[in-house]
Design a protein that fits this description.
With 252 residues, the protein is an alpha/beta fold. It has helices spanning 6-18, 26-33, 37-45, 64-73, 77-88, 105-112, 125-131, 158-162, 191-200, 239-245, and strands at 23-25, 51-54, 57-60, 96-99, 119-122, 139-141, 145-147, 152-154, 169-172, 176-177, 182-185, 203-207, 219-223, 229-232, 235-238. Residues 77-233 form the DeoR-like transcriptional repressor C-terminal sensor domain.
């Protein structure tokens, strides 16, 4: 019987790891398997591997739904990072911070891991993976039904779960803000938790890249006057400034 090649053995190992984790950091995986990052990129390039390299991560490509999320992780990545740099400045020392799901806020999680925040609360698996074992700040994960399309958990009656947590600042994701100031997302199951975070936090901010201003998704969850402001790669817009921005011409 022919012995599997080293590449085949690695591909099998990586596939097994991806069965329990939706993404693997390339740098960490390189150290774990004792090979270079370039070797792992070659493994991912094999048509039958079942995974791909997206930015600095190895991600599964076995379903269209999973692929869509991972593709978004590397879209407008510099803008997302810049937006999160601005968002970090909105977190006072000792604050309890809520981080929504999505592909932008994991960048903020990295920035807050060694901050002076008192606690980070999230229901996003990607954010939890980033913070696990790497955060100086205590992290609380909100459980519930797993939704693979957004890599997050959602429980019934999120107000009951969030109310005792005394959230100071909530950072929310969104798929778009249309010209009327309606903020939207892609999935109706996201609405209850987003609404609860807005109503139960002292301040709530949207964090997204500028390309989403003027865009719209299928599920509306709030109006811009319900939030304290929007943070993009440009900086912080107050609700009033954002309303004015929505009346200006958009980038082509």
């Amino acid at each position: 019987m022919t012995r599997p090649s080293r590449q085949q053995e690695r591909i099998a190992q990586i596939s097994a790891l991806l069965d329990v984790s939706p993404s693997l950091r390339l740098r960490d995986l390189s150290h774990q398997l004792g090979v270079t990052e370039m070797t792992l990129r070659r493994d991912a390039a094999q048509a039958a591997s079942g995974f791909a390299c997206r930015g600095g991560y190895i991600v599964a490509t076995r379903t269209t739904e999973h692929y869509d999320f991972d593709a978004q992780m590397t879209r407008a990545i510099d803008a997302k990072r810049a937006a999160c740099e601005h968002a970090r400045a909105l977190v006072p020392d000792g604050a309890v911070v809520f981080l929504d799901t999505g592909t932008t806020l994991p960048h903020l999680a990295r920035l807050l891991a060694h901050s002076k925040a008192r606690r980070i609360i999230t229901h996003c698996f990607t954010t939890a993976e980033i913070l696990q074992g790497r955060s100086d700040v205590p992290v609380e994960f909100l459980g519930g039904e797993i939704k693979s399309s957004t890599r997050s958990c959602h429980a019934d009656n999120p107000e009951i779960r969030l109310a005792p947590l005394a959230i100071d600042v909530a950072f929310l994701s969104a798929g778009g803000i249309d010209k009327r100031g309606t903020v939207s997302c892609s999935h109706d199951y996201e609405v209850a938790l987003k609404r609860a975070a807005i109503s139960l936090s002292n301040q709530s901010f949207l964090v997204l890249d500028e390309s989403k201003i003027g865009a719209s998704k299928s599920v509306a969850f709030c109006e811009i006057n319900e939030i304290a402001g929007l943070v993009t790669e440009v900086g912080l817009y107050s609700a009033a400034q954002l309303k004015n921005r929505l009346t200006l011409p958009f980038h082509e």
